[in-house]
Design a protein that fits this description.
heterodimer, A: alpha+beta, two-stranded antiparallel ribbon, 11 strands, about 50% helix, disordered N terminus, disordered C terminus, B: about 45 residues, mainly alpha, 1 helix
């Protein structure tokens, strides 16, 4: 069996390959276990997760009024769908969350926890050096945060979450790398966040920003050589490079958002605040990495007293492991990541308190850019990384320096075993190994609701034939004009999805032209009421004023072709079963497709006054700059999969960096 | 080597048993009922 050196560098060619592939294997296996049937043929539809066959890149780029939330994630999906089936693209996107996240956390643990024998830590061949990264990787992708965001359909946010360990490693490396090399590594590490979009970049800034500022290249046990420290840049230089990398990754959505003039409804502060989904209140739920605002996104069994209690114990043990590791190893990024976790936890709690809500409302009134702070639970992500690394440290402590061949290898300090007072190589030591494996798998045991398609809640379905027929009919029409989506409500519970599932109406993304739909968000409150968070599409507001839809059905009493045409509407889609056949006998409207769940109407050409829709040049330019920067950063290393070390390794086991 | 592997297997088996128990609890849980047959759907309910 391959052996490992203290800093995680495995000896021998086979060992090096094992060290490279094991973290990815952890993430992939976790992904298969979690997604299960969702990876099969068909589209998984749930809340915000809407993938459609043959999405239109031009439509995504033209976008709608308001904040460009679908940029660039939907654009990336559209590009990939040019060469791959849409359902395969979705499977790849979901798998990437687990593979990239699991591998990133495992590599971060592997590179950061273990160092050369001279400085202490597990020696060659230690079991702890194998199990600890696996534990960290598994814990990072198997927790309530991932489960709840997945059940909320926020795959793009999760992609940004998956990139956090890589961004932390790259940010820490700014302290020791040459500026250009450090910048390139950071841009490369920001690829998942760049694809994820706004929330992902904000999350990355929160998590890796303090690391970039706080990492001390010349201090701590993890310090590198004097030469390495000299190559690095001072904190203000690191701050500049970090900000520049973030802006570079954000250009596709940043430029259009600056000119969008979109407002953010402060009502979302109450609607999207963290809530309690365990017996431990909001604070306890957030500590457990849960607390998402939507009760429909809580994995089955998670809030049960038994599982939640064990989960709480696991979190506390992981945090203890993190503190133990910080005190023992003093990793370069430790202080920064701890600060990020504390800051994120405070942000998550803001919306759960009266004064915090007032502050958020005031901030959003001041500048709509503070809108993402409404969804507080999002910001426990850095705490998830801290807990994952902490659990890895616990497993490493338990497994200690036991050799894979059974003998007790040299363990720099050997403090773990001495702490228990057990004899080396005795039954106590083997018991610790068993306990280490148990602890490694405990995140899965206490969150079984994520297993196999989240307990069947992530099931792929096929679009009905009439949906595809409507898509094809609209694509075949060479006359301009928008598609109006009815009923006038954003979310559907389609019967054809096989089982009840709430999802953003797929019709909003199905067609190759601008769609007009109600982007107001209605959130039910525990007292049976509801909060309406106003949408951002100004044109949709104008349509609503003209339609005057029945609030109970979302359907207009009657529509005239002239009225629709004046709104620039060429097609009307009714994407749910309705009793109201308002189109019957209306002159100037013809039925193109009619089925139980889909009706496509066409407004006769002479009535339509279409708006001119163009792809904003600024947006395209921004996107090209970002893509160019990513290509440049990858070309510098020769591989996008080269992990940026979290800091210079000390000791004999450290690998030398190859000068670029 | 065999002892180490046996210890790992025992640890994994214990975790598997715990997962089974937790899955049973999750199956019995009724906390997350999905809305059905509504005319209009909320984005979600708190």
């Amino acid at each position: 069996m391959a052996s490992v050196h203290g800093d995680g560098a495995w000896s021998g060619a086979a060992g090096r390959w094992t060290a490279r592939l094991l973290p990815w294997a952890v993430g992939l296996v976790a992904g298969v276990l979690a997604l299960g049937p969702a990876l099969g043929p068909g589209y998984v539809l749930r809340y915000d997760m809407v993938f459609v066959p043959d999405p239109s890149l031009g439509t995504v780029l033209r976008g709608a009024d308001g904040f460009p939330r679908a940029i660039p994630s939907d654009a990336v999906v559209a590009v990939l769908s040019l060469v791959l089936p849409g359902d395969l693209v979705q499977s790849l996107a979901l798998s990437a969350v687990f593979a990239v996240g699991g591998a990133g956390a495992a590599r971060l643990a592997s590179r950061a926890v273990y160092r050369g024998g001279a400085a202490g830590g597990p020696a060659a061949g230690s079991l702890g050096a194998v199990l600890a990264p696996v534990a960290a990787g598994l814990a990072y992708v198997w927790n309530p945060f991932v489960a709840e965001r997945l059940l909320l359909g926020q795959w793009a946010v999760l992609l940004g979450y998956a990139g956090l360990p890589w961004a932390v490693g790259a940010a820490a490396r700014l302290a020791t790398a040459r500026p250009v090399a450090g910048f390139a590594g950071l841009v490369r590490a920001l690829v998942p966040a760049a694809v994820g979009g706004f929330s992902s970049v904000v999350l990355t800034a929160l998590t890796a920003g303090p690391v970039a500022l706080r990492t001390d290249g010349a201090g701590g046990n993890r310090a590198g050589t004097a030469g390495e420290a000299d190559r690095g840049v001072r904190w203000w230089g690191r701050a500049g490079l970090f900000a520049l990398a973030l802006v570079t990754a954000s250009l596709p959505w940043l430029l259009p958002s600056l000119s969008s003039g979109a407002d953010t409804d402060p009502a979302g502060v109450e609607a999207f605040a963290a809530r309690s989904d365990t017996p431990f209140g909001v604070v306890g739920s957030l500590l457990l990495l849960g607390g998402v605002w939507n009760s429909g996104a809580v994995p089955a069994g998670y809030g049960e007293p038994v599982t939640a209690s064990v989960r709480l114990l696991l979190c506390l043990v992981a945090l203890a492991g993190w503190v133990w590791w910080l005190r023992r190893e003093r990793p370069g990024f430790g202080t920064g990541l701890s600060a990020a976790a504390l800051l994120g936890f405070a942000l998550a709690l803001l919306g759960a308190t009266g004064p915090g809500r007032e502050l958020l409302t005031w901030l959003i009134g001041l500048w709509p850019g503070f809108g993402p702070l409404r969804d507080g639970q999002l910001y426990v992500a850095p705490l998830a990384l801290v807990q994952a690394l902490g659990l890895g440290a616990c497993v490493r402590w338990l497994a200690g320096g036991r050799s894979l061949r059974g003998a007790e290898a040299s363990d720099g300090s050997g403090e773990g075993h001495r702490a228990l007072g057990k004899g080396r190589g005795g039954i106590g030591s083997l018991g610790r190994v068993g306990l280490a494996v148990f602890a490694l798998l405990l995140p899965v045991a206490v969150l079984p609701g994520l297993l196999w398609g989240a307990g069947g809640r992530l099931t792929p379905v096929h679009y009905p034939e009439e949906w595809r027929a409507a898509q094809a009919a609209v694509a075949a029409d060479d006359r301009p004009g928008a598609v109006l989506v009815l009923p006038w409500s954003a979310y559907r519970g389609p019967d054809w999805s096989g089982r009840p599932v709430v999802v953003l109406d797929p019709a909003t993304k199905l067609f190759d032209r601008r769609t007009l739909w109600n982007d107001d968000l209605v959130v039910g409150t525990p007292d049976g009421g509801s909060v309406v968070v106003s949408g951002e599409d100004a044109r949709a507001r104008r349509v609503a004023r003209v339609l005057e839809p029945d609030p109970r059905t979302g359907m207009p009493e009657r529509l005239e072709a002239g009225t629709l045409g004046a709104l620039g509407v060429r097609h009307v889609v009714v994407s749910a079963p309705v009793d109201n056949r308002f189109w019957s006998g209306v002159e100037g409207l013809s039925v193109v497709v009619e089925g139980p769940d889909m009706v496509l109407l066409r407004v006769h050409e002479q009535h339509v006054s279409p708006d001119k829709a163009v792809i904003p040049g600024l947006e395209v330019t921004g996107g090209l700059v970002t893509v160019g920067a990513i290509i440049w950063s990858v070309a510098r290393s020769g591989s996008s999969l080269v992990f940026q070390r979290s800091g210079p390794s000390a000791g004999s086991g450290a690998r030398k960096e190859i000068p670029k | 080597m065999i002892k180490v592997i046996a210890a790992c297997v025992i640890g994994a088996a214990l975790a598997g048993g715990a997962t089974f128990v937790a899955t049973s609890l999750a199956t019995e849980s009724t906390a997350t009922a999905e809305p059905v047959n509504e005319t209009l759907y909320n984005y979600g309910d708190r």
